[in-house]
Each structure stands twice: as C-alpha cells, then as structure tokens.
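tool_call: predict_structure(chain=1)
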Amino acid sequence: MRRRRLAPLLAVSVTATLAPALVTSTATAAAAATPSTASSSAATGALNRYVKQKPQWKRCEASSPAEFECATIKVPLDYRVPGGKRIDLAISRIKSTSPDKRRGVLFSNPGGPGGQGLYMPLGMQERLPEAAQQKYDLIGFDPRGVGQSSPVSCNLEPEEENWLRPYKGETFDKDVAWARDVANKCKEKAGDTLPHITTRNTARDMDLLRAILGEKKISYVGYSYGTYLGAVYTQLFPGRADRFVLDSAVDPARAWRGMIQWWAEGAEPAFDRWTEWAAERSEKYGLGDTPKQVDRTFWDLVAQADEKPIEVEGQPTTGDDIRSGMRGAVFSPKYASEGVVELKRAAAGEPASANKIAAFTGSQGTGTAGAANAGEVPSDNMTASFWAVVCGDNSAAWSRDPESYRQDAIEDKGRYPLYGDFASSIKPCAFWDKSMEPATKVNNKVGSLVVQNEWDSQTPLPSGQALHADLKGSKMVTVHGGEGHGVYPNGNACTDGTVTDYLRTGKLPARDVTCQATADSNSEARKNQKRDVLPGSPLPQRAPDRF
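tool_result:
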C-alpha cells in the first residue's frame, strides 16, 4: 500500500579601500581564518589591485548584437590569499537604453549550480519591459569554474554523470563505488581548484565585479540556485544589495542535501493533486474514476515495467524510469495525464507517442547541451561545478557513512514512494573533502522580492516560503496554481507587473502578493522548463537534475 506524506554563522571579512569614495567589504574569510597567509594590509592591497582592472569590452561574437559586449577579468582563486593564484571571470553587458534614466547595474544568474550566465543579458533584453531596461546596464557572467570562467572538469565519463540513482539492495555497493570514484576523480583532476568553487566565493566575485564597474550597489535577478547565490550575497554584503528578485527559491537551511530531498517531499502532494485531477477527467483520459483508481493505474504500470521494460519506438522504459519521470511531470497534471495515457498504450502493445512520454524515457535532454562556445568547455563542466558547490558549500550536511544513505533511501522510499530513494541515496559528497568555510546562515533584513509558483518541481513552495522567512525585509509573490520552475517573466500581468514595478521603482509591495496562474502563464513556464541554453534565452533548460 502506498503511504501518503504527512504533512550565527559569521561572514568574516576584510574591509578594503578600493577607491577614494568606494569601499567594499569583499569577504575574504581571510586574516581571521588563517592569519599566517596574509596580513590585512597585504590582503587589502591585493584586492585594490584587482579593483583597478579595466575590462576590455568588445563585441561578444560576430553574430551577436553590437550592443552585447563581453570581457574577462581576473579574480582570486582563494580570497584568503588574494595575492595568490588568479582565475578568469567571463562577464558581459548591455548598456542602459536611456543613460539619463539609468539607476545602476542588474546582475543575473540562471541557476544550476553550474549554469552559464554569460548570455543572460540577451534574454533579459528580449523580455524585460523597456521601462526596466532603461534603468540598468544588464550584466551577465559565467560563475567561477563554469563555462568561460576558468571551467573545471573531473574527467567524468557520461555514465558517471548519471547521479540520481534509485536504491536497490543488489546494486548499492556499486553505487557507493561510483560515488567514491567521482569524488576521487574530481580531487585528482582539480583538487586545488574545486574547494574554492563555492557560492560564497561566487558572491565575492560579484562584489569585486561591482567595484570594478564603479558601482556602489547592484540589483539582481536570480533563478533557482541563483536565489541562493543572491541570498548569500545579501548576507555577506547587505549594504551592497539594491533591488533583488529571487525567483523559484532555495531554502538556505537545506543547502544542499535537504534541497535534493525536497524533490521527493514536494512530489507527493503534487502526485495526490494529479490523481484527483485525472479522476475528474476520467472520460477523457481513462485512468480511473476515483483518485484511488488513478493511483492504482500508475503503480500497476510501474510494476509491469519493473518486470519487463515498456518499449516505445525501441526505447525501453523501466519502472524506475517511470517513477523518476513522473516526479517532474506530475507538477503539471495535464502533462502527466497525457504521458501516462501513452505509457498505458505502449504497455498494451499499442502504438504510442514517444514525444508525450519523453519525461519517462529521459529523451528530453539533460540540460548540458546547447551552451554558447560549448566546444571550449569540458563536457563534464556542469556536473563538475555542480558537485563543487553542492558538496563544498556545506560538507556538514553530508554523512561520511555510506550505510546511513542506505537506511535513508529505504526509509524515504516508504515515506515518498515516487522519488524518496532517488533523492536520499548515496552521492559523491559522502567522499568529498571538508568545506573550507561553514555554510552561510541567511538571516537579514535586506529588501528583496521572492517569486514562487505554487507547483514547482525543483524548488517546491515551502522552499520559497522558507527563504522569504529568512529574508526578513522581503515580500513574496506566490502564483496560485502556478506550474513550472521559473516565473518571471511569463506573460501574467499580476506577476510580471509586480516584479517589473519593483525593478523600475524600487518599491516593494506593501504586503505579500498572491497572483492567479493562467493557462498561458503555465504554458510559458513549461516552455522555460524545456528551453535550450542559447543566446537570447533568459533561462537555461530546466534539467530535472539541477536547480
């Protein structure tokens, strides 16, 4: 029987004088953490030299718009030793369309961890209202270790990048060996670099870039993982944060094992909602007249596929494939219903649409292809940088005992049958080195706007509510009935209007806002979830195994 779900860390910093009237608190965790590495004055001098860089802006590509400019700056690999090794940070900009109305700079991040953000200004230009574009220079960047910013690699083979693995007693030892091997390969290939590819250091890079650009503050739009990056920035540099939009939010207290487990916890109420939705439309879909019957239809398919994979156009689909795919599909009841209908047909030996069951077969893509200049980036860069952040931000969240993952996977498969074992089983972080800094506790009064769909498969609603509670100066926009990961902009006058007004005027709503989703806005969200990483796209492809 399927069980239903029951319902201060200090940022040590060195204040460095950067220009006559411009001071930054670019956190080095430096002299206080390791006083022998550099004196405060030496660290200050080294950071000042970074700030004096003058970006050599040039057209990003011959095919890109003339106003879209790129440059490369240098940042410290280790902010505790700013005079040590340097790495590249690839940056981009589109200047304000109205210099006399310009307020400052609008940074952005697409999510990940490991998502490339260099081309985000093109997408923002494409979709932001003119009133907002007049206010800001649009600034993009590939985070450290990602894309064009000194990309990292672990020399992983494609099969080693498959990391969300269902628990099975007979394969668990192999999964432990895989996790250990990935961690060891990362340490062997980039052990001197990966410990510094963290959210805190990326936030420091943002503040250094702010100073290089000559700005006192930054505004920011961050999606998914980008909400955590934005929140960490507000914690480290509260005086530097202007207007912050945090869309589809991460709960900072659950970075990162707990956030992966949210995928299982959040899927259960979405599954229950789907069974009710499909039962109400039994004449159309034929999946059952009651929620219980719809539930049984689904699990019967899983059991059949466990016994013998269901084939669609030569593509075998196992019961684990169905559970994994349904985790994301179920947040859109219509999409899930259409997929299960096709699976039923295939299970009965009838012709079925491979396109409609793509979520269950894995043929919808992994989210790593399509990036600009991909040939210059290691093929495993997104995965390598993902583990660097997910393991390195907060090693304390990850047990060092493999058997604890076995027990968690067994228990969570019982609590959250759809996905619990995928989320809780062993990951490479079990064998990662200890984090160089403690995790960031987010707890501040910086003004910001948290934006969240009610039905989000990657960062469920309680995650967004948790970030809102941590950011005590924030207001929250909740899209009731909203489906998909990534809200703004989606054509919904309520959500788009609220966010745009905030970016344009700096005035937060007087109270939290609830908007009603529309068919068009939900459709747009689903497009965001499938969109390729291409110039002109404000959001990356929403891979089911990334934030």
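agent: The longest strand covers residues 471-483. Proceeding to next step.
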